[in-house]
Amino acid sequence: MAGYSRLRRNSAQRRALLRDLVTDLIIHGQIETTEAKAKELSKLADKMVTLGKKGTLAARRQALTIVRDELVKEGQTAVQKLFGEIAPKFKDRNGGYTRVIKTLPRLGDSAPMAIIQFVE
């Protein structure tokens, strides 16, 4: 995961944060987070969809190094959802699988917030 913004965290914390965010994005389809995190997450989520479009065993193993092994529903994990449901929707698209929509600042600290979601 080289080439990413530091997000005021050390490398282990940053990797864990991005893994959690990309897994939640795959499970829920959209999440609300800060703008900086959403922009970094967009890069990683697009790479995961690209791996999902390949559909090979090697691509699945590469995705498993990033996406957490969480259950979406009975008998389906996040990686299975990525490869089975999300990636086939984008088979004719060459990139730009996510969108970042800016929203109102967070009430507590006025941090700029955004919603990140998969494009239909």
From TrEMBL:
An example Pfam family from this entry, by short name, is: Ribosomal_L17
Q: Which Gene3D superfamilies does the annotation name?
A: Ribosomal protein L17 (3.90.1030.10)
Q: What keywords tag this UniProt record? A: Ribonucleoprotein, Ribosomal protein
A single cellular component GO annotation: ribosome
Coiled-coil ranges per UniProt: none
Task: List the InterPro entries.
Answer: Ribosomal_bL17, Ribosomal_bL17_CS, Ribosomal_bL17_sf
What do we know about how this protein assembles, alone or with others? Part of the 50S ribosomal subunit. Contacts protein L32.
Spell out the family assignment given in the record's similarity comment: Belongs to the bacterial ribosomal protein bL17 family.
Name of this chain's protein: Large ribosomal subunit protein bL17
